[in-house]
Amino acid sequence: MTPAQLMATRAFPVARLPLRRALLPHVNRQLARPLSTSQDSSRIGNKWRGFLQTLGRVTLVTVVGGKLVSAGTFWYITYKDRNPGPQLPFDPSKKTLVILGSGWGATSLLKGLDTTDYNTIVISPKNFFLFTPLLPSVAVGTLGAKSILQPTRYVARHKARQVSVIEAEATNVDPVNKTVTFADTSPLRPLEPTRTIPYDYLVYAVGAETQTFGIPGVKERACFMKEIGDAEQMQARFLDCIETAAFPGTSEEEKRRLLHMVVVGGGPTGIEMAGELHDFLEEDLKSWYPELHPYVRITLVEALPSVLPSFSKELIAYTERTFKESKIDILTGTMVKGVSESSVRLKPKDSEEHDLACGLVVWAAGNKARDISRNLMAQLSEHQKNRRGILVDDHLRMLGAPSIFAVGDCTATSYAPTAQVASQQGAYLARLFKLIAKRDELARKLEELSNANDGKDVETQKIQEAESLAKQIEKIKLKPFHYSHQGSLAYIGSDKAIAELPIFGREWTSGGVATFLFWRSAYISTLFSLRNRALVAGDWMRTKFFGRDEQRCNALARLSTCMTAPRARTDASWVPRSKRP
Fold first, then answer.
1. Total-model pTM
2. What is the pLDDT of residues 349-381, one digit of tens each?
3. 96-210+370-437 architecture in CATH?
4. Which of 12, 107, 546, 549 could serve as a FRET partner for 537 with CA atoms 20 to 30 Å apart?
């Protein structure tokens, strides 16, 4: 490279140095300037967009994961319900516990009982448990009959040791020889229609019958509300009245009579029955039989001065106002003197007897002891002197028969004959039998130790063991039964309910739509299984969206015998084989 070319190449950067120095302050000022508003917003928007995307992904994973967990839990519970595991066989060394009945007391006991301590046998004419508080809903089609039934074998099959469930009617209890005699109620007539088995402990939970007070026509023509068969009969009769009134040529007077429903009994069952009838007539009959709606009438008859005597005055007044708005007539202080095919004879307190024309009479007025209970009390007449029911001590043991425990409506106690009382009594007996089994086991060991003959060398050791066992037996204290009132609920129609709940030592009362939602949630939680909860909730949704069932199938129509023919056999009654066809 020549000197001239070398000078030219060096001159170029030298010539650009002043330009760099001139531009450098300008560049620094540009870099020092803050970002523009658009750039700032873009950066913040990108951060917010990223946050929302992350939040959306987390929410999606949480929702999907929660649903999967819920579905998995539901599947697992239903699988365990349908596929119970193996059970221990009967143990000849264990004592025999016989349970008569499958109602609230018996089922609550069976559910909480530790069957590894006993050989348990359940004898009942029904092979299911009936959730009686929702029985009025079945009578008008709000719920299906199977939704409130729980098979007894479902409870028995999920116990640790086998439980023998026998569908039969107990005919006699011998408290002296400690035996139970029962008969099969099936028309198939097995070779041995009756059996007698011994017991070590007997839980007597046969319930009670509906009290008719000897009033003519009640047993033959009124519809009861105690068993599932009663609800189906009442529904058949109710739909029969509606269809007969809709028949062409029916007179105005006959329509008024057929569509006049009379409910006898102002307790919770009668109140709920009147409320359910009102809902059906207003929500369904008005839509499907608009020409019959003006003839509909509901009357509630109560012999006492007021309805719902166990509730507070505020709730009684609220119920009466609600019934008045719903056009349900309340006749308090009025006694029923008779029931005929087309009317009910009433005797008000301050007036003469008169006949009230009606198409349906629902009887929900009191209980009385069954024949087997009266026979049992007659065998212990020195201790059992109350005609209302069986007398028991503080541990629910039958007076005069310490090996018999009685619970539920068959007893005569200071507690009201409600499902809540019977359920708590059954749960109490489950805990009591656990302590009794422990005490009996210690007593057996003590007896074996006393009968053993091992020589003088071990005499001192035997004495010490015997003293230790005796001290352990003394430490086992059986606490008496104590009823804890959890409150009272009743549905009064028009999507309203009343509640009386003990909260912090005070009685809290409420009524209205919110209480109705609480009433439903309380009953849903009280049901014994997930199956029943799902069925009842599904029936409520079905009724809300599609209405109640008003069709009459032939099988249901054949049950329509109340008020037109002698009363058919229900699950709680037994016909001797000699009188069967």
1. 0.82
2. 888 999 999 999 999 988 999 999 999 999 999
3. 3-Layer(bba) Sandwich (3.50)
4. 107
